[in-house]
Amino acid sequence: MLDDRLLLENGVEIPVIGLGTWQIPNDITARVVKDALEVGYRHIDTAALYRNEEGVGEGILESGISRRDIFVTSKIHSSCKSYEGAVEAIEESLRKLNTDYIDLMLIHAPRPFNEMGEPSEKNYNKENIEVWRAMSEAYRDGKLRAIGVSNFSSEDMDNIIQNSDIKPMVNQILVNITRYPKKLIEACNERGILVESYSPNATGKLKGEEIKEMADKYGYTIPQLGNRFDYQLGTVVLPKTTHKEYMIENLNIDIEISKEDMEVLKAMGEYEGWKGSNSD
Ligand SMILES: NC(=O)c1ccc[n+]([C@@H]2O[C@H](COP(=O)([O-])OP(=O)(O)OC[C@H]3O[C@@H](n4cnc5c(N)ncnc54)[C@H](OP(=O)(O)O)[C@@H]3O)[C@@H](O)[C@H]2O)c1
Question: Residue 142: its pLDDT value, please?
Fold first, then answer.
């Protein structure tokens, strides 16, 4: 699992398991990142919104592991919807992470998070193209090795694809046993956009008798079953934890879930109408 990589359309390799860092306070992030790197993680997922990019940068530096051996993702804040704002946001993430380049930069959401849950007349199609233009320039300048989106619907992805030279390489979306967006995953696959699954453990809320029974059948804990489910969908998996023992447990997911049981698990959370997420 540790050496497992997926390939982005531009040929960049991405480690299939990455440590999530949402809700990790900046002052403990360096320690958490160092622990993760020590047990073998080589992929860290952060965001401007998480306010812990500095801790991520420190942890990487203190680990003594070469920067080029670590894959770092960050995200432009969902409320940043202009070209100038995005140029600044990229520079700020580079500075906070204390790095010359970021491996993957994402637009955190197609609309500001406070508007994601609401039915809204307003779309941000033009604004997202402007943000994408800033990201494309930084990509061409070598400041970003890959660029992508998060929480985008197929319409949101097509807006970028139809109006820019560079296609998103990734869509990071909510995927777990209780939230399986079949059609959106298919839409990403059809467009050659790699899916990254966030909240594989439903932000700590993955539970229920059926899920427990399935986990027991494979000798997995529930979080391990959740990680393995997302892995078998062919997606990047981003489990978050601050505990070293959980970091190790979350990597230890070599036992295959049978085809039949994957179908049972998929049916538990299939969600047809998925348009985006109101989470962050
Ligand atoms: N793009 C987006 O909009 C978006 C949205 C949400 C998340 N994300 C990304 O995806 C990452 C993961 O999602 P998430 O933060 O929602 O949470 P998650 O990974 O689904 O679940 C995290 C919770 O599960 C617990 N946990 C993890 N492994 C465990 C284990 N082996 N045994 C017992 N408990 C375990 C953690 O505990 P402890 O922390 O106490 O150890 C924490 O409470 C985020 O951190 C972020 O990087 C992105």
Answer: 98
Coil/strand/helix, residue 240 = strand
**What is the rounded CA–CA span in Å between residue 175 and residue 212?**
18
Q: What is the pTM of this model?
A: 0.97
Q: Probe ligand 1: pick from 116, 199, 207, max atoms within 8 Å of CB?
A: 199
H or E element that contains 250? helix 244-251
198 is a catalytic site residue: no
Which of 108, 157, 132, 125 is closest to 275 using CA atoms? 157
Cα–ligand 1 centroid distance for 141 (angstroms): 33
Residue nearest atom 29 of ligand 1, based on CA coordinates: 246
Residue nearest to ligand 1 atom 5, measured at CA: 280
Say how many Å lie between the first and final Cα of the chain, rounded: 26
Distance (Å, whole) CA 195 – CA 172: 6
Higher local confidence (pLDDT), 123 or 159: 159
Q: Mean pLDDT across the stretch 259-276?
A: 82
- Closest residue by Cα to atom 13, ligand 1, is 199
Q: Does ligand 1 lie within 6 Å of residue 151's CB atom? A: yes
Catalogue all structural domains in the chain, each as residue range(s) with its CATH number: 5-269 (3.20.20.100)
